[in-house]
Amino acid sequence: EFDIYRNNKHIGTHIFNFKKSNDDLIVESEVKFQIKKLGLVLYKYRAVGTEFYNKGKFIKYTGKTNQNGKDKYANITTETNDGMLLIDGSSYKGKAPTNFLVGTWWNHEITQAKAQISAISGRIIEQKVVFLGKETINLNGKNYKTLHFNFSSTDKKLDKDKKLNTDIWYDEETLNWVKASFDKKGKWEYRLKSVR
Fold it and tell me: How much is the pTM?
């Protein structure tokens, strides 16, 4: 479970639920936040998504997002005859290589991917990943020895609000995602609250 902060103010949560059964892994995700000013809600966001894996291999993803009243979606499957991913999303419909990963951050393998697929809209985001070093960070009174990465878009023609520029911290020992930070109309942070 993550707490979401904007400009150091708590605005919501991002909760993952991992369900393992024999060779199957199902990863459920829910993000909820709202931005208020003077008690008025200026912006509301809710996203739910489910990833399916079998024997460590990605099978499919389904996701729905309501971004301040605008509905978006992404459905990704491996059920093609040519070994490609098939994407049906609100921003992109088509195929992609199987080594492009869903951009949900929990899977450390995303640091090795040439591109990620937006869990919101299915858009393909080609990325450059830079390892910034090892850091000890404190979250909710607990110290984590982490590996710090920066993810950025390789397509420089993208509009500023579409460009990826996110710092991600993974626990050095478990490779669990523990923190994210990015600037987009304010400074945003996702901070690990608890693991159960």
Answer: 0.93
